[in-house]
Amino acid sequence: MTNESTIGSPMGTPPLLSIEGMIKDFPGNRALDNVSLQVGSGEVVAVVGHNGSGKSTLVKILAGVYTSDGGTVELSSQDGFDTELHIIHQDLGLANELTGIENLGITHYHGASSFAPFDRKKERAKARELIGRFGEPFDVDIPISKLAPAQRSIIGIARALDGWQHPRNVLILDEPTEALHATEVRVLFDAVKKLAADGAGVIFISHRLDEVLDLADRVVVLRDGRKVADEPRSDLDHDRLVSYVTGIPVGEAEHGENARRAGEVVLDIKGLTGEILEGVDLQVRSGEVVGVAGVLGSGREALPAMIYGSIDADVESFTLDGRPYLKRSPRESIRRGTAFVPGDRAKFGSVRPMTARENVTLPELKSLTGAGGAISLKREREHAQTLMQEYDVKPPRAEQVFAQFSGGNQQKIVFAKWLRNRPSLLLLEEPTQGVDIGAKQAIYDAIDRAASTGAAVLVCSSEAKELVRLCDRVLVLRDGRIAAELAGDELTETQLVIEGYGLKSEDEL
Ligand SMILES: Nc1ncnc2c1ncn2[C@@H]1O[C@H](COP(=O)(O)OP(=O)(O)OP(=O)(O)O)[C@@H](O)[C@H]1O
């Protein structure tokens, strides 16, 4: 399927970056198998592939994090300029305990020497200018662990674009848009297109095929460590790209009508107030999937954590399964049958040094203990193995250490872990962030199953398409309040965007 004739640099110049025959072996697993890839000046090359197809491994080799087991990497050196690689990693490579200003490295402009004291005002102004390219400025003086994932992403992107001196450098974006809202994505893409127009080469790694088709000039597809396609964007459409990624022709749409019936009220909140939220009323019934939409800063990000009890909030009343629940805490929420799958799953949803088996079975040890309270290893293994298959975790090795799975596969494991518990209330934040299309379907199916077996599900997501696919109704937050509730024929992607931004009609989109 590889179309070698299309590879190369536009304008007949040598590529800025040339990777030849790249090989990377992990014990028992070849993550990259003879992968070659060129990026020319002015070109945006997207690299796509399933979770575990080798995308991050390729980036880590380019970044010098891993040494390859074969192959070469060459950067151009022309007219006295040595092309540099600038990389925005999946996890953005940020230091969570440092502030936005410190992460942006701004102290080096304004008084990093003992003779020039820090000028906080200038630092702050510079930081706000950098992040201002991506929308509303936010607090740059607090540790970035306190920021929303989207805001942390903005810091990472702003940092990579700052200090960009030479037009013919190569920028590598490793799934940068996962935590960004559509508006920020647009700003980022405009910045990337401008860099390319000025002569940069760009490698863009993403699971979002629509974005790939929007941004890329050429698309390289990896499957199980091998390059299976390398084609100009003009030769591709969505379906063709999906079939390269999955290896199977995809005809069926992802939409599935749910024959669910809403039952008793499980979650009933009145007057939820805290952070940006002001007096939000919310009800979710058993068997119902309720979505929460809203642009960055609308209050959407904090809502599930407030319900779960990991962020403080005031309420007028709060009942769970018909009983008042005022002193909330994560421990008590779990005890009362609530599961929360956070957006930042790798950080909050897992124990990284443990195996996948230990992670998936962690919340359910009680049902796996045999006579005398000992954990039955055999049962735990069988159980974990079934879950790994059910959620299409690759490789399906229950004994592999969690941290050694690719990002998307880690998310499938965390998901499997929480849904396994049969929660009565399931709180989900960006449930398919960073997950490939195959796994996305597996997660959607699991959410449908959870609801049809009686769970009340609340899904907070920045993806309008996802909310339309999953939800019975969607609450749209704007400036901390519920601006609209959409259901039935009104629940469309366009309507979600109109309500999210407070626009009057489709013409204003
Ligand atoms: N440190 C490691 N030790 C062992 N195996 C690893 C390690 N890092 C990655 N792998 C394996 O290499 C393969 C490629 O993983 P990689 O992270 O490059 O995939 P990816 O395409 O970036 O996936 P995702 O989209 O989920 O991030 C996977 O099978 C993964 O389990």
TrEMBL record:
PROSITE patterns: ABC_TRANSPORTER_1, ABC_TRANSPORTER_2. Residues 17-249, 260-504 form the ABC transporter domain. CDD domains: ABC_Carb_Monos_I, ABC_Carb_Monos_II. InterPro entries: AAA+_ATPase (IPR003593), ABC_carbohydrate_import_ATPase (IPR050107), ABC_transporter-like_ATP-bd (IPR003439), ABC_transporter-like_CS (IPR017871), P-loop_NTPase (IPR027417). One of its GO terms (molecular function) is ATP hydrolysis activity. It comes from the Bacteria. It holds the Pfam family ABC_tran. SUPFAM superfamilies: P-loop containing nucleoside triphosphate hydrolases. The keyword Nucleotide-binding applies. This is Sugar ABC transporter ATP-binding protein.
